[in-house]
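[User] I wish I could look at a protein chain and see how it folds. I have put the entry right below:
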Amino acid sequence: LLALLASWPTAATPASSPTPSPEEAASIFADLSPSELRAVRDFLLSRPELGLAPSRGAPPASNTLFLVELLPPRKEQALGYLERGGPRPRRRARAVIFFGGQARPNVTELAVGPLPHPLSYRPLRPKGGRAIPFSARPVSQREYELLQEALARELDPLEPLLRHITGFGLRNCSRRCLTFSDVAPRGLAPGERRSWLVLQRFLEGFFLHPVGLEVLLDHRDPDPRRWAVRQLWYNGRYFSSPRELARAFERGTLAPVPLEDPPPSHPLFSSYEPRGTFSTDTPTCTHGAKVCEPQGRRYRLRGNRLEYGGWSLAFRLRSSAGLQLFDVRFNGERVAYEVSVQEAIAFYGGHTPAAMQTKYMDAGWGMGSVSYELAPGVDCPEVATFLDVHHMYDADGPMRFARAICIFELPTGVPLRRHFDSDFRGGFHFYAGLEGTALVLRTTSTVYNYDYIWDFLFYPNGVMEAKVHATGYIHATFYTPQGRRYGSRVHTHLLGNLHTHLVHYKVDLDVAGTANSFETMDVRFENISNPWSPGHRRRRLSPGAGGALGVSGEGGRWDTPGEPDPAALPPPCPCCLCRYHLAVTRRHEDEPSSSSIYGQNEPWEPLVSFESFLRNNESLEEQDLVAWVTVGFLHVPHAEDIPNTATPGNAVGFFLRPFNFFDEDPSVASRSPVI
């Protein structure tokens, strides 16, 4: 490794000018272009020592390229280029390779560069230098194809039972086929790869059509012919093999639950087809209110650089985890080096084995790569700017995702600020107000059943908001009376399982520079003697400790009240991301993210241990700090989640707000108030 590092090319090239243009500055954070993705692929395929084969159709016991995406520059190099006239950082790629065709299979990550014409590569190791076990790899499309084949083969003895109770099958089924949803983690201990599969009828919204059969399939062996069903659950009973379940059906000791045939002339309850009526006669077949831009756009997009009012920033859409902002500035002064989505988690409860096992960590499902097309007029206003993205995730080449990102200015429907100055005689001295608007940067992640709508909003007064809406289909299981302890019955044979959504963000704040301190502030009551009326006592508010949280630097002219309050950390936990609303750490290059694409299938000994970020007892005074923010909500499904969970009431997020950073509200620079 040392020899490889010594031969790695220099990380930067001479700058073309002391001060890069805004577009040049943002481009160091831009996603890899299709030509760069192809260049990395071709270079790695040409290296005989890697022995790579095309991923499509390759068996698990092959060496395949799974993921290629940008490897961002080191912060020190980026700031040197952006602020001090230093050399431009060389563009590099992160490549993930599944080495299944070796005596000891593993997953290896490589840094490949320089781009656009790569010449060499070197290994990338997670913090601690551990090797990535082969069992931790995400499931590829080819593995899903093999799972489908193994399931049909293993469940062949159950084909008569499945036809009897569902009217659907796994073989020769034409338009009446069964499918499955798999859950994770895939086992109970490191190294396992055993997945519970929920069988469903392949209808529109098949997530809401479980048939009552769940199957534990072991697919750890590199030879798919040796994959086998280890256990089954049907309607509340466990069976050790498909033949045992088939015999119980043949002997009459199994009470099957036949499912009704889908209605031929009525919309499915899981479909989007209109049905029912409203009690008023107000029109719903015409367009509702729309966003318009009567005098053109008030934002500017140049490459991956976005400007709006005082705001400027660079952005990208990572295949691995989603939206990532860099070099976020207001009026030319950086307020954050990076703000990014890290992980989305959903922990479920249930009575069935699949439900009780489900603990989704969506970075392990390529959360950023499932950024499908946004519909104008529904997902984003028609006047929005739509951008295509290219992913090379579980594919042999770059894949274009049309309209995966949208950008638009949104009227908030409430004034940013206003005042009516009454004269208390029926008139007024003055009225003044400023229309409420925000610039929205949006994408979505459709991780199987759930759709996450990811927003970053930028307000004219220097406030930034990160928000996520949850919608799509609920993760549901077959209804049994015992299951009602863990959810709600939402249809005849359907239980909506209760679950908790948690979303993790990284916020690398640079408040007037990188030398920041973490502070907390609370407000408490003081019981004092009234100074203007002795003998009376008053309660007044004063700064305390433990409530409001902030990262401070040398900013505006006003002082920040309160004193830092050191907080005791809770004890370690298996999923430490979800233990903290906010955790603040010193920034380290070997801690670029709080999760990884491997955490889903190796949660017991995670390659990225967020807890280790917190346990080094480092000072948070005058340091380069990162805030790790967790937001979430409990979802108890109900009938109104059919067919889909609605966005109202299912959104969470956080704000970054200036606190005495400016001398006054910076939105006074707007030339559009009404006075």
The radius of gyration is 28 Å.
